[in-house]
Amino acid sequence: MEWRQDSAANIKKKLLLRAGYRCSFPGCATPLTNNLGIPSVEFCHIISLAPGSARYDEKAKADIIYSQENIIVLCPQHHRIVDFDPQLYSAEVLKKFRSDHELSQDTDFPKDSVNKTLKPTGGTSVFHQALAIWEASSTVSDEEFWHKLFKKNPQLLAQIVPECLVQIADKAYVGGKGLDNSGGKIIDFIYGKKSTKNVVLVEIKTPATRLIGREYRSNVFAVSDDVVGSTIQVLGYRNELSRNYYAVTHAEGHQIEVFDPQCFVIVGNLAAEGLDASQRASFELFRANSSVVIVTFDELFDKMKSLVEVFS
Questions:
Q1: Which InterPro entries does the record match to this protein (predicted)?
Q2: Boundary (domain end) residue, out of 59, 83, 118
Q3: Closest by alpha carbon to 207, among 272, 121, 303?
Q4: Residue 297 has pLDDT above 90, yes or no
Q5: Do the beta carbons of residue 292 and residue 263 sit within 8 Å?
Q6: What's the number of domains the chain is made of?
Q7: Separation CA 184–CA 175 (nearest Å)
């Protein structure tokens, strides 16, 4: 298979070059590295590898699934969009997106003069350090440990949220206090979009948090109480922030907007939990149909590892 003939990193480098280091979604063309050389790119499978995930095809042959022709280069925002609605963004639609985009690069960005400012200039060093911490600490169940890591290195969480974001606050008050000054709601992180000032809410748990709970029916599993609880929790924070927007933001002088903010939960470790096919399908179905984006710790750090390999 093609993956065996060439390394995954080299294949992704070729795909980036063919895409002109830009998102392949029509009308986007977002550069996939910022002016500091820090990459923000995702390699989306056109036909999915996992049961329960977007565009999964159990009849697809391995040589097709594992070929570089089955990958489209996208920015994080459009990766979320195409996976959220796989009926609209079918495999055939994504193949056309990719083909049209690559053809446009031949005229707009000739291969012999690819804009070098789009290429990284050492921006992955923080990912090297984060990966070393992950390898040594992937079983740490102290939420404060991970909070401090993401607070000190805001670009780590920025890899999984759409557009170009900056960390506005951590352990931020979003409202909810009663007359006795108790019951205030505190979100782990608030990020803001540079373009619109709209916020993104991020709640973190730990890699040790369980993802799957008891079996509900034969081969159908419930997600864990922690996954359900954290999902509802971050939606509650969004509701409180929307209700208390003026009081919260203007009292502190923050220049942000709250337009139906997107919510993320970082939780668990898929690889370490060792889910079987039915458990994984149940988990994928739950998060694919949730308005909250659920990302596991190993997925987050695997993305950093991939970026380090590709942009080295």
A1: HNH_nuc (IPR003615), SduA_C (IPR025359)
A2: 118
A3: 272
A4: yes
A5: yes
A6: 2
A7: 6
